[in-house]
Structure of NAD kinase:
Amino acid sequence: MAETRGRDSRNELRKMALVASPAPAAQAAEAELRQRYEWTDIGDADVIIALGGDGFMLQTLHLMLDRHQIRPVFGMNLGTVGFLMNEWRLDALSDRLQRARAFSVTPLRMDAETIDGERYSSPAINEISLLRETRQTAWIEVSVDGRVVLPELVCDGVMAATAAGSTAYNLSAQGPILPLGSGLIALTPISAFRPRRWRGAILPETAKISFRVVDPVKRPVSAVADQREIRDVSVVNISIDRSIALTLLFDPEHALDDRITMEQFAV
């Protein structure tokens, strides 16, 4: 028998939609949840339950952005790391939603132009990265708020990361961990060769970042907004997209801000 849906602070029913990654563990969990609770379509839902890992959470958030159907998302980890997810449990989902803490995430916006003059725009919840496409190192001019701050960054790549994404690829590239709500963006090089001593920068989220690829034909570069790649870019402009606010829900004992803070002390 399906369990009654959870209620919000106004004692109204919260309609739930369920999405799951194709991984076997997520599919099995989806089958169990569908037998236990009542579900609706994403367009009619008040909240979305996402089963999978961090990659699937990003995929779910981008799907909502594409459909213009933005809903709060409560993720349960059935992947590998699950930094953006809660613990998987079948029982007491309604109670967990009632107690959940909400965190607002504002994505970056990438506006890219290719060497053929094509233009693309895409949001990024975690990071926007530029990556060399061949064995040739990338040569990238970096500007902030219209001022050239690095005339020539010779590297494998460079990225701009949000606070929510600062513990992902950014951290692997030895970038800084940013507290949630800090209003900051991490600008982090990937295997920088020159200038040798530049290790990145921390910028206010009001900053407008521009990357211009020097000699993009000989040294081609791709731009990736989370999981979306644009190849052979010549210019990439990045800024916070304040027209969008995404909401992630977490168990109080598993809250995102606490997890980001504790990552600073992980050994």
